[in-house]
């Protein structure tokens, strides 16, 4: 990153680089901002985005250098156990946005606008975006759709709230699509996707998610746009990538989609740890003397 703040912080009993003076030099990268993402588009430095829904995970993802934390409405599926993203409410999104934004020191935090919060008119859309910023503490909001939601993107952007678009497979449209299918296939599909992405850009979005589209189309769209594209199941030609954190950690239900790279099987680790605990309690091995007062 270009803008690096280097501040010297006194940490009580701090570990790591602390010298005999008790001072520790902490290199703290400055906040990822909307202009910083625009700069990345120009220089070609890739943007790493992940979803986050709570404080402990957001804290760790932020410390790991994730550029953008998305409080996705995938919350409904991976945290609440729903079949689709449709049931999650604005109140629930606001609550989870607050947990994540409290944890994020460096990452740009984006809050998803849930189904129903922007479909029924401009006024409710603006109210919902204001709540996500004011109560949820997010830096930007995201909503799904292309040309048909351009007026809402424009209205939010006019309030100086940065908006991220989302085209291709938009999960809130699952019933119209008849399932979670790759979008942008065939000549019409390709033209519609490019048109949607351009409409989102023209409406004032600062970035756009391309979900489940053929990689050559995503590459073409990324070249055509001046704003960064963030791909999920859209190949390597996008300006950045996003994954749902539960998929990456092996905490999802069932087999993950083909585009997911699972880095660890945390589900297995959690189950093993819980089994060990249950055995210890049953066999009266926990708590030990050292774990008692
Ligand atoms: O809700 C979500 O997690 C998303 C990502 C898949 C982009 O919108």
Layout of secondary structure:
Blueprint: E1 4-10, E2 23-29, H1 34-43, E3 47-51, H2 55-63, E4 68-71, H3 75-78, H4 90-103, E5 108-112, H5 122-134, E6 140-142, H6 150-158, E7 163-168, H7 174-177, H8 186-202, E8 207-211, H9 215-224, E9 229-232, E10 240-243, H10 245-248, H11 266-282
Parallel strand pairs: 3-4, 3-10, 4-5, 5-6, 6-7, 7-8, 8-9, 9-10
Antiparallel strand pairs: 1-2
Helix pairs in contact: 2-4, 5-6, 8-9
Residues 51, 70, 72-74, 112, 166, 209, 232, 242, 244 line the site of 3-methyl-2-oxobutanoic acid.
Can you describe this structure?
The chain is α/β, with parallel strands linked by helices and 293 residues long. The chain folds into three domains: 1-30, no CATH class; 32-262, Alpha-Beta Barrel (TIM Barrel); 268-293, no CATH class. Helix content is 38%, strand content 17%. It contains eleven helices and ten strands. The chain has helices spanning 34-43, 55-63, 75-78, 90-103, 122-134, 150-158, 174-177, 186-202, 215-224, 245-248, 266-282; strands at 4-10, 23-29, 47-51, 68-71, 108-112, 140-142, 163-168, 207-211, 229-232, 240-243. An eight-stranded parallel β-barrel has the order 3-4-5-6-7-8-9-10, surrounded by seven helices. It has a two-stranded antiparallel ribbon with strand order 1-2. Helix 9 (215-224) links the parallel strand 8 (207-211) and strand 9 (229-232). Helix 5 crosses helix 6 and helix 8 (186-202) runs parallel beside helix 9. It is globular, with a radius of gyration of 21 Å. The chain binds 3-methyl-2-oxobutanoic acid. 3-methyl-2-oxobutanoic acid (KIV) binds next to loops.
């Amino acid at each position: 990153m270009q803008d690096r703040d280097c501040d010297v912080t006194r940490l009580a009993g701090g570990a790591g680089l602390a010298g005999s003076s008790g001072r520790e030099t902490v290199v703290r990268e400055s906040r990822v901002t909307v202009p910083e993402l625009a700069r990345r588009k120009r220089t070609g430095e890739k943007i790493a985005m992940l979803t986050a829904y709570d404080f402990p995970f957001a804290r760790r993802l932020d410390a790991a250098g994730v550029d953008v934390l998305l409080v996705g409405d995938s919350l409904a599926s991976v945290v609440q156990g729903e079949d689709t993203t449709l049931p999650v409410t604005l109140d629930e999104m606001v609550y989870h946005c607050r947990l994540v934004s409290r944890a994020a020191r460096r990452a740009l935090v984006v809050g998803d606008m849930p189904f129903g919060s922007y479909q029924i008119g401009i006024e409710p859309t603006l109210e919902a975006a204001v709540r996500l910023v004011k109560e949820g503490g997010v830096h930007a909001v995201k909503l799904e759709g292309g040309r048909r939601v351009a007026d809402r993107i424009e209205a939010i952007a006019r309030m100086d709230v940065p908006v991220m678009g989302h085209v291709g497979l938009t999960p809130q449209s699952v019933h119209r699509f008849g399932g979670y299918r790759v979008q942008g296939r065939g000549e019409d599909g390709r033209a519609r996707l490019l048109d949607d992405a351009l409409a989102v850009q023209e409406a004032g979005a600062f970035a756009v998610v391309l979900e489940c589209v053929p990689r050559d189309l995503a590459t073409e769209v990324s070249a055509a746009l001046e704003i960064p594209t963030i791909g999920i199941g859209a190949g390597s030609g996008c300006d950045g990538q996003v994954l749902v954190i539960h998929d990456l950690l092996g905490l999802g239900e069932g087999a993950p989609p083909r585009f997911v790279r699972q880095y660890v099987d945390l589900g297995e680790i959690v189950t093993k740890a819980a089994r060990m605990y249950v055995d210890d309690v049953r066999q009266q091995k926990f708590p030990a003397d050292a774990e008692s007062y």
